[in-house]
Write a structure and sequence with these properties.
By secondary structure, this protein is of the alpha+beta class. 40% of the residues lie in helices and 29% in strands. The protein is built from three helices and five strands. It has helices at 3-13, 19-38, 84-90; strands at 43-45, 49-56, 59-62, 69-72, 75-82. Strand 1 (43-45) and strand 2 form a beta hairpin. Helix 1 (3-13) crosses helix 2. The longest helix is centred in the N-terminal third of the chain and has 20 residues, at 19-38. The relative contact order is 0.12.
Length: 94
């Protein structure tokens, strides 16, 4: 499912909201998650999962084409851990 499909599905389920309002709501939710992660905060959506940021140390990597050693800088990457309810539904337990 892509963002536009999500917006359409929510708009269809809530006929009292216009598609423009639903789009603004969805975009606001995503922006708030991004801002919280950028600040290093954790975002938990009960039953769905938790977004957090992991720190990756600087390291020496390899160029797969040439085999040459390449220095890779340290970085922060987003991490998602599924919630129990989501895991159970994916595995047919709910």
């Amino acid at each position: 499912m892509i963002r536009s499909e999500l917006i359409q599905k929510i708009a269809d389920a809530n006929p009292h909201l216009t598609q423009r309002h639903v789009e603004r709501i969805v975009n606001t939710v995503f922006e708030e998650i991004i801002e919280a992660l950028a600040k290093g905060d954790r975002v938990e959506l009960r039953g769905f999962g938790a977004f957090s940021v992991k720190e990756r140390e600087a390291r020496t990597g390899r160029n797969p084409r040439t085999g040459e050693a390449v220095e890779v800088d340290d970085k922060r990457v987003p991490f998602f851990k599924t919630g129990k309810l989501l895991r159970d539904r994916l595995n047919g337990k709910a």
